Amino acid sequence: MHRVFVSPSFRALLAPVLEEPYESSSTRLAFGHHCLWPAHAAAGPAPQPDQRDVAHSAATWLITTHQNDDGGYTSFSQGANGAPSNVGGTLDAIIAIASTGYSVASPYPFKTNAPLDYLAANIGDVATYAAADGAQAGKLILALAAAHQDPTDYMGYNFAISLTNQISPAGQYGVDDPFKQSLAILGLTAVSETVPMSATQWLQDRQATDGSWDDGFGTMRNADATAMAMMALIAADIDINDSSIVSATAFLDDAQLDTGGWGYTDGSSQSTNSTGLVIQALKAAGEDFYSSGSSWAQGSNSPLAALLSATNSETGAFQADFGMGPFDDFFSTVQALPAAVGKAYPLPARLIAAKLGASCIANLRDNGGGWEQFAGAGVNAGGTARAIEAIVAVGGDPYSNSFLPNANVAGLPVPISAL
Fold this sequence. Notes:
By secondary structure, the chain is an all-alpha fold. It is built from 16 helices and four strands. Strands 1-2 form a two-stranded antiparallel ribbon. Strands 3-4 form a two-stranded antiparallel sheet. It is globular, with a radius of gyration of 22 Å.
């Protein structure tokens, strides 16, 4: 008899929980014992310097040069232990480091604490940070999801509710500028929450006629806010052919510099931060930001090559230059790293994906409480055991009738009794 699986294999569900995260793409790049999946064409020479070396060196530089002894980071850090850790700086570092495949839950060699240790030890400050506005709650959710934590149940807090509770009748999440609204929307999408139409409409209503968004501080034609808004709208399921996305893409094309990168606004020189965010937006829109022969290349210089050229080959850091010459910069590095490995926001979140899969499995039980291993084959111990294994892997309790949130368990025996 031909057998058909009713869902992806239970092993596939467990893999996101047990193994390092991968971003699906056509080319796999080895990165130590990890793999990165940037949007890289299968043929042709790799950009120089190589993404693998850049990601490894930049993440290492962040950890060894800027991580404080408590595992946290300082916003706009000038060096390890130079100033107390804070929540915002630590979240910046978590997003950047997690994007490369490094664990932020385990201490780096010769470090006594990891970034998640800092958050756990300062959970009151974390909660206060998230309660300030939707942008900060969204940023926290993006970081926790990227670190393979559950933002809906972290240290006793549901930060998704902290975010959704901040929406106003007009659609904004306690914020007043497009960049911050984008962070809030991206946070919602990171945990697969439905984004209200009023939230995306509020953002679209603030788009300029040239396709750009301003930064909230009076800077018009701002590449950073435009890139963030594009990512937020696309993540919220606004079609890439929607006029807001099309016009934003046209603005980015018009604003691109001869170097292949972008400045903060008109008349600005290439900014590592701006170029990184725009690359992420292009990734989200399915554009070719990496090939030397793409429509986004200036000469033979692709946006990705322009970004990678801003690294210090001796230290591994990404550099900023405000007119006095380039220098290694913490904030440039944390904003550039996700783009350097070809990932848009929200970053892949394996625990969230696994929990969604487990909830699906929970609803496939038969009336006796067990599971089929194959469609039409009938409930058996093999199918039930694998389902229980998957439920346990994502933190569910198979001895309980509420083994997973939102699981349809009414009237059924506990899973373990079906074995």
